[in-house]
Design a protein that fits this description.
147 residues, alpha+beta, Immunoglobulin-like, 2 domains, five-stranded antiparallel β-sheet, four-stranded antiparallel β-sheet, 1 helix
Length: 147
């Protein structure tokens, strides 16, 4: 009788170790997946925080040059900004400007520097408008101006 009780106890002990191992394996897998997901989200947030810019024009006097309106984009973030038609999208009054209707003066700007955006005069009529500049990390800035 004593051996039967000991055998049953050992069997229950081994079974509980197997169950505990399986449960801990599941928890480890779930926690690793959560860790990867949080790391990806933090990297994206860090990129958004490092990407900060603003339009620094006078909204009453938009300069013109060779058939283009000129807008100034200042990098106020902590990292370089790649400035081209692939990384920045422009919208005027809610309509997306074709990528062929604007270009940047430089390929990238360092923190504190300014790039010039040349927008074809044919895509903006006279009157009051809203220019929205959207960066690659979905950071956007609105600028209300008058032509």
């Amino acid at each position: 009788m004593g051996f039967d009780l000991t055998a049953a106890t050992v069997i229950f002990f081994v079974a509980s170790l197997i169950v505990a191992g399986a449960v801990s394996g599941v928890f480890i897998g779930v926690s690793n997946k959560m860790d990867r997901s949080l790391s990806e989200k933090l990297d994206k947030m860090r990129g958004q925080i490092d990407t900060e810019f603003m339009i620094i024009n006078d909204n009453e006097e938009i300069p013109e040059e060779n058939g283009h309106y000129i807008f100034y984009l200042k990098n106020i973030g902590d990292s370089n900004l790649v400035t081209n038609n692939e990384t920045f999208q422009l919208l005027v009054d809610g309509g997306i400007l074709p990528k062929t209707s604007y270009y940047f003066s430089v390929d990238y700007i360092q923190p504190g520097q300014v790039a010039t955006i040349y927008v074809d005069m044919g895509v903006i009529s006279s009157g009051e408008h809203n220019l929205m500049v959207v960066g690659s990390t979905a950071i956007k800035k609105d600028f209300v101006f008058k032509i």
